[in-house]
Specification:
With about 90 residues, this protein is mainly alpha-helical. The protein has one domain. It contains four helices and no strands. The protein is globular and about 45 Å long.
Length: about 90
């Protein structure tokens, strides 16, 4: 699947969670947080590929390689910081 399609699908999931679970904020928040992390993973892969990174058949390996690339680039580190920011109650 093309990276843009992954990103669009994740966006659609976030929108659907907001529409369908507005009365259950806890459930909605938990799902949206998970989807935001997926979104950031795939944005990192998109950046990695745009900068010449090679894709592997293994999606998990692509995400790990992309996050390593982003961590090494100061102007992109905010993506990793956002991805790993802890929740206020100490859980992540």
């Amino acid at each position: 699947m093309v990276m843009e399609q992954y990103i669009k699908n994740i966006n659609d999931n976030i929108c659907r969670n907001i529409e369908e679970n507005e009365n259950d904020r806890g459930f909605m928040s938990q799902n949206i947080l998970a989807q935001l992390r997926n979104l950031l993973d795939h944005i990192c892969v998109k950046i990695y590929v745009a900068q010449g990174g090679a894709l592997d058949d293994n999606e998990f390996k692509n995400i790990q390689n992309a996050k390593s690339y982003v961590k090494k680039n100061g102007n992109l580190q905010f993506l990793i910081k956002f991805h790993y920011c802890p929740l206020k109650n100490g859980r992540s």
